[in-house]
Amino acid sequence: GDSVTQMEGPVTLSEEAFLTINCTYTATGYPSLFWYVQYPGEGLQLLLKATKADDKGSNKGFEATYRKETTSFHLEKGSVQVSDSAVYFCALSNYRGSTLGRLYFGRGTQLTVWP
Amino acid sequence: DTEVTQTPKHLVMGMTNKKSLKCEQHMGHRAMYWYKQKAKKPPELMFVYSYEKLSINESVPSRFSPECPNSSLLNLHLHALQPEDSALYLCASSPSGTGGEGYTFGSGTRLTVV
């Protein structure tokens, strides 16, 4: 079945450090891939998405490229800020009729950025 | 309007109470979802409504009863809950049921069952 594997956290970085959070997926066909962010006490916000191979999603300095050959969608940011501290979820959606609207989430990665 | 609005934000209820969670969106989305999220875990799908019809029920106990009165509203009726049902309940919507467009989540209702 479809699934997402996300690197374990927590990840702790100093401000302005480079961030990578690894995400790989298992799915047949051509899933859509997402990164969601959840700030403390809040719901999930869509950070970026990619719907086909080689697409690059980007938002707020974060980037992720849909790599079909390595089934990966790693999240990167060149210089993190304290305000980026949150939990990040990698997710996929793979519409095949019978899996209508289902999002498959990774386990989430807690990021803490220190000043 | 690009939001999903959930009410209430916090709810404390006893195991014999009946309460309802409400979710509203005015983006014209035709698919709406209920997710349950325990602390430090990813959200778990509970129900999917597509074009106001229940499309997916993830074997959720009958003490949770969803309702979709119209394309903008989604309710979750709660009755005789257990303490282990305490969690963050998230509502989400998407333009259609295919999922490729992404999902908009509400900020959630934090439920505590005592």
Secondary-structure map:
The complex is a heterodimer of chains A (115) and B (114).
Chain A: E1 3-6, E2 11-14, E3 19-21, E4 23-26, E5 32-38, E6 44-50, E7 56-59, E8 62-65, E9 75-77, E10 86-93, E11 103-105, E12 109-114
Parallel strand pairs in A: 2-12
Antiparallel strand pairs in A: 1-4, 3-9, 5-6, 5-10, 7-8, 8-9, 10-11, 10-12
Chain B: E1 4-7, E2 10-13, E3 18-25, E4 31-37, E5 44-50, E6 53-57, E7 64-70, E8 73-79, E9 87-94, E10 104-105, E11 109-113
Parallel strand pairs in B: 2-11
Antiparallel strand pairs in B: 1-3, 3-8, 4-5, 4-9, 5-6, 7-8, 9-10, 9-11
Description:
Chain A is mostly beta strands and 115 residues long. Chain A contains no helices and 12 strands. In chain A, strands 2, 5, 6, 10, 11 and 12 form a 6-stranded mixed beta sheet that branches. In chain A, strands 3-9-8-7 form a 4-stranded antiparallel beta sheet, with no helix packed on it. In chain A, strands 1-4 form a two-stranded antiparallel sheet. In chain A, strand 7 (56-59) and strand 8 (62-65) form a beta hairpin. Chain A starts with a strand and ends with a strand. Chain B has strands at 4-7, 10-13, 18-25, 31-37, 44-50, 53-57, 64-70, 73-79, 87-94, 104-105, 109-113. Chain B is an all-beta fold and 114 residues long. The interface between A and B is medium-sized, with 24 and 29 residues.
